[in-house]
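To the wet lab folks,

You asked to see what we're planning to order before we commit. Fair enough. Below is the target structure as tokens, and below that is the sequence we designed to fit it. If anything looks off to you, flag it before the synthesis order goes out.
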């Protein structure tokens, strides 16, 4: 099975993100991503048995408090991905790094090269862009300034099935 571990983003910003993604995809005829508003903690990986991941995640969430981040402004990875920028608090950075380090102790989880770099917190609007669509979409999204106070208050394991990404199990931080 293919899984991804994320923090689902909720509240007003979830609706803002959803509407912006829908508008951009419709207006510019680009494909919508299959995951709801989130930031990624562990990129997609294959796993046959989640029990160790579930134990580590539950224990982590029971012993850590929710922390804050601000979503404000737009950014991009080259001309391929446009995203909403996330400015994490020091506690959020610390919690995410600590959680990822715990995951790294679990045998069999594959880590991609870019997952070893410093975590770039972001919430994707669109990806797999061409240079032509990138410029038009970049200009368009910047017409919609925003700023939201948010909370890193959950760790959610999602599974890919034929309908798309679905919640396998969610955990709340204290």
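Sequence we intend to order:
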């Amino acid at each position: 099975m293919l899984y991804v571990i994320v923090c689902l983003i909720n509240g007003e910003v979830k609706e803002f993100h959803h509407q912006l993604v829908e508008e951009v995809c419709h207006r510019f005829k680009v494909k919508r991503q299959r995951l709801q508003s989130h930031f990624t903690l562990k990129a997609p990986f294959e796993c046959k048995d989640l029990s160790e991941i579930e134990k580590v995640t539950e224990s982590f969430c029971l012993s850590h408090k929710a922390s804050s981040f601000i979503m404000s402004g737009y950014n991009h990875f080259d001309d391929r991905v446009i995203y909403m920028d996330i400015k994490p608090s020091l506690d959020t950075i610390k919690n995410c790094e600590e959680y990822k380090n715990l995951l790294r102790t679990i045998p069999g989880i594959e880590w991609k090269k870019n997952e070893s770099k410093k975590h770039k917190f972001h919430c994707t609007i669109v990806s797999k862009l061409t240079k032509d669509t990138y410029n038009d979409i970049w200009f368009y999204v910047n017409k919609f300034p925003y700023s939201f106070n948010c909370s890193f208050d959950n760790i959610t394991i999602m599974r890919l099935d034929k309908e798309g990404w679905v919640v396998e199990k969610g955990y709340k931080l204290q």
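Structural context that might help your review: Residues 2-172 form a domain with the Cyclic Phosphodiesterase; Chain: A, fold (CATH 3.90.1140.10). The longest strand covers residues 67-77.

Thanks,
Computational group
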